[in-house]
Design goal:
The structure holds 4 protein chains of 4 kinds.
Chain A (H helix, E strand, L loop, with lengths): L1 E13 L9 E7 L5 E5 L8 H13 L6 E5 L16 H28 L6 E4 L2 E4 L2 E7 H11 L5 E6 L19 E13 L5 E10 L7 H20 L5 E2 L2 E2 L17 E6 L22 H13 L10 H13 L1
Parallel strand pairs in A: 3-4, 10-13
Antiparallel strand pairs in A: 1-9, 2-3, 2-8, 5-6, 6-7, 9-10, 11-12
Chain B lengths: L1 E6 L2 E6 L6 H8 L18 E4 L2 E4 L5 H4 L3 E3 L12 H8 L9 H14 L5 H8 L10 H18 L1
Parallel strand pairs in B: 1-5
Antiparallel strand pairs in B: 1-2, 3-4, 3-5
Chain D lengths: L11 H11 L24 H4 L11 H8 L14 E7 L5 E7 L1 H5 L3 E6 L22 E2 L5 E7 L2 H8 L3 E6 L6 H4 L14 E9 L2 H7 L2 E8 L12 E6 L5 E5 L4 H12 L6 E5 L15 H11 L3 E4 L2 H7 L6 E9 L5 E11 L7 H11 L8 E9 L14 H19 L3 H8 L18 H12 L7
Parallel strand pairs in D: 1-12, 10-11, 14-15
Antiparallel strand pairs in D: 1-5, 2-4, 2-6, 3-5, 7-15, 8-13, 9-10, 9-12, 13-14
Helix pairs in contact in D: 11-12
Classes of the chains: A alpha+beta, B alpha+beta, C alpha+beta, D alpha+beta.
Amino acid sequence: MIKRGRGMACMWYPIGFTVAANPSAATVKVNTDGTATVLTGTVETGQGALTVLGQIAAQALGIATDDVHVVSADTDTTPMDTGAIASRTTYVTGNAVMLAAEKARDILFQAAAPLLEVPPDQLEARDRKIQVLGFPSKSVDIGTVAQHSETVLGAPSIGSASYNPPTVPMDPETGQGKPFNTYVYATQIAEVEVDDETGEVEVKRIVAVHDCGTPINPMLVEGQIEGGISMGVGFALQEEILFKDGAQINPNLTNYIMPTSLDMPEIEVELVDNYDPTGPFGAKGAGEPTAVPTAAAIMNAIHDAVGVRITSLPATAEKVLGGILELQAS
Amino acid sequence: MMVQLTINGELKQADVPPETTLLKMLREYLNLTGAKLGCDVGDCGTCTVIVDGESVNSCLMLAARAAGSEITTIEGLANAQQLHPIQQSFEELGALQCGFCGPGMIMSAKNLLDKNPEPSNAEIRDALSGNLCRCTGYTKIIEAVADAGQAMNSAEA
Amino acid sequence: MRPFDYIAPSSAQEAIALLAENGDSACPLAGGTDLIVDLKHDAGTINLLVDVSCIPEFRGIKETPEGLRIGSMVTFGEIMAADVCREMTPAIVAGAHTIGAVQTRNLGTVGGNLVTCVPSADIAPSLLVLDARVTITGPDGSREIPIEEFFVGPRKTSLQPNELLESILIPQDALGKPSKFLKHGLRKGQALALVNAAASLRLDTDGETLVEPRLALGAVAPVPLRAIETEAFLAGKPATDAVIAEAAEIAVTEAKPIDDFRASADYRRQIIRTFAKRVLTRSVEIAKTT
Amino acid sequence: MATRTKDVQTDADELVTAREARAPAKQPLTLPADDPVAFPLQLPESKARLQTPAVGQRATRPDGRLHGLGQTQYIDDLTFPHMIHAKVLRSEHAHARIVSIDTSSAEAMPGVLATLTGKEIPRNSFGPTLQDQPVLADDVVRHRGDGVAAVAAVTEQIAADALEKIKVEYEPLRPVFDPLEALGDDAPRIHGGDTNIYASKVIKKGDVEKAFAESDHVFERRYQTQMVEHVPLEPHASIASWDGNGRVSIWSSLGRITLGREDLARTLELPQSKIRLIGTIVGGNFGGKNEITNEPILAMLSRKTGRPVKSVFTRGDEFVSSTIRHPFTMDYKTGVMNDGTIIARKIRIILDGGAYCSWTGTTIGKGSILAPGPYNIDNIHVEAYAVYTNKTTTGAMRGFGAPQVCFAYESQMDEIAHKLGIDPLEIRLKNAFSEGSSSPTSQTLQAVAIKESLNQAAQRFGWKEWQA
């Protein structure tokens, strides 16, 4: 018989390294037509880092994502970056890019101020224009300003900056301290069906509600969450490296069982409305935490369905059936 | 041995050792690196191409076997003005992340939509089960295939 | 892969001659989904592949007076797409559908799956319960044997040196026979069977008595297994839940599952019990509605 | 009958000659084989990329289009003139002393241009926090994934064949695979010293023992997790090219190039200015590509041969020689009041630390800090130990210990809720952090959104309306 169950799990997760410095540096240059180039030492590993960093630079400069080209990952040309690790790119590298873009933008404000006849601190960059705060009709096209600044004033619009999350070392005896500057939070709820004659668990649906601060690009955040859940489903039910005498016995994708398209549930993603003042435009991060609560939610759903408490992962069908039979026997 | 193939509508040939797989011939002899080598034993699907109208793991097919066949690879889908609707949907819906599964995934999607223009969600999942993806949970990929199917149907209507 | 030679003969006799001429150094190539993988790991003595996949005698699905003849080199994809198979042998289509994924099903062949002769061959149980016969062709002509005689041991068939599997015949009276195939693997997509099972049966005119019941199990013994004792028990009995439950217990005793890293023998026995029940029950339901 | 292509070749010498003779014979038919692939020239950009403000837009990714076109160049898609291929021989033992390595037969093979052993690596150790891992083992092998020698040859197949010609003599040492056994007094010491524990963490807040005594209920349970592989679809890959100025360029699937260059400079004993490390689009990382692997080997082989050297992990290499997720054994003891308020939690974690440290430092840190869960608990005691075993190196994997401890703390949360007859949502809301809460390390938390996520998820799921 098929038994239905539901289970929830929530979690918290930090952004960046534990206490250890993990800085990023970035350079942003505004071209004379108002487009921009970002230099970053981080690496695009599929998460969409370069798109997000481009959006952050574009936001700071008041231009569109497509106006920004991001150059990355070459030690000969790009600045220091701790790398694509610890869910830190949006927050740490993003802050560096934002700060660098603001420096480049300030050069444009200096150039535009005499043109618009207001002090630089009365200006904002929006809609591809440098405009007077509160008077959007008083504006100059950003390309015109960049051209003027570079070719007339001799002040190219370029900025470099770095960011490192502030931490306080942990006491070696008690672990007390401030190991991270910020954390994200999430809840996932799983609905499962358990076949009580085979122990097979089918995850039907997962609702995932995550906090990532401001989502710089909601589509990419959703993608991270959906992918994290697939890793969580594998961790929960299928995946395990097995050994015999110290040698792996399933080091291949035939026998190391990870989810296929047929094994994945319907996923519903929502983001919590949140803003972290320490992140770029309120953003925190999204990469790793997406994979954290899934297995726990599924285990709780299995318990809800058939009363079996799985205490060692993965919850293979054999393990679940073993639990069911034990319950029936007692 | 000399192997002749029609690839993306053009006749190509290369002199390859008999043990050469179709994947190796595409990548190393014809410089078509869209199809990827992810596992080399037919589990991951990154090497998927279409041979005479059927998708196959090109890592498991000898080039010699494919001689004389019509082969479609990822490089053959777009033209100078237009992405293929599947490529368009994958891009717009953010279906690919690291992208390594992408060429194979899109060829599997094409194989499906060529035969079944209005697949159900279950049929899409079934059709993609030979293409592993570790980034996306398949969610946006499945949405993109459905979306592309609709786009292709309305374009024909 | 290490170097080997490749040749694609155009007739069965040419293929047989090539195999005879080259002895252990030659190996027939069907879909390649197993053999090419093996060759990538270890070529052994093989240095000539004789590609038999396009030999006309081995191709095609034909309706004949004796029954449905499926060429050994018909792919699983072709079986799934063939209307005649979908209508007359849905259990074979279901078995084919669980093998690998679309891409491997477009390469892999029925004959290759049978000749590889692994206990978990997903095409085997449905063929066993439909009383399939196989035609073997060799240097001295052709012979036809029941499929259960084809499986000899793990990775060992009754093919003699230089013989090739030509076709599989589903006898006329098995076509349309109520049947069901089920498979249990470690996941849904691209799964290897921990246990697979098929049943076929008819109900007598009373709508209750089991006639010609068949049950086959895979991955539970050195070869795909026809559960003869279970079948004998079922024959002539009423198709009730109690009878089926008892039959499932007999099936468990007929199977000889092993412990391996995928599952324990005990777990496999549980699945055999459940699946024997399910394929039989489902076959009865189908029989009642047709 | 199809024409028979050639006589069966078995002689390797002939083979190489035949192959090299064949290789350039790409005879053009209608078009050269390497004619440019058609690609779209005039595509409209998606609207979200063109809009301002940029933040919050569902902007498409520029690399996404190239992925879909098959035009993204991963390492394995790159090729350079005269490029050769490297393969690494891996240990036959989980724990053994290397007595000798004889590469002469491999070197003598036609098509083999160079071999390399650990003794030739200028500084044969690396690791992000603890440099306890050899690039190629030269003294002791500590797990089956340890590389012991490498070969560079004109084809991958010849390199693979040559590995079989390398003779390694081992003196087997007693292995230990179970982390709990590895803690024992008589367990073999995998890295010498007097213990296999190589990292530990303690977090103490309040007084757990006193709080347990005051608790209405105490729950105790052991939870265990397994070893898991990242499975990036793109296996690790790199290409190294040493130039005439003594500068080496390395294209790598590494996810952290700045620190990667530092690691390379250290192992190669080169100034950082002499190394150019280029990251490409990486075909999946998930933490598994945050360590150098074959890069120093390829650099050395390139220096030896004067050729660009490429290596791509097989799927098997990916499993056995790259890092994987730490298995955790977690003992949780939790003191709860009748109303569901958690007042104490004591946790002991043993991390199966594999053969080398890798990112264990970060994993034990994050795992320990996060282990009590996102809950206001006044009395906390966490202690965690990472233990060497003769198994695959455990490193960074999406969550650094968080998925493991979350499985434990959230499983126990449900067990508590079940026992006390409290709805799982309510017990979490009762204990969850809120703005300004104090973390287990007494950090004041800001931008906290745990209760919001719980309520929003319950709403979306239909938690209250659920009927089984």
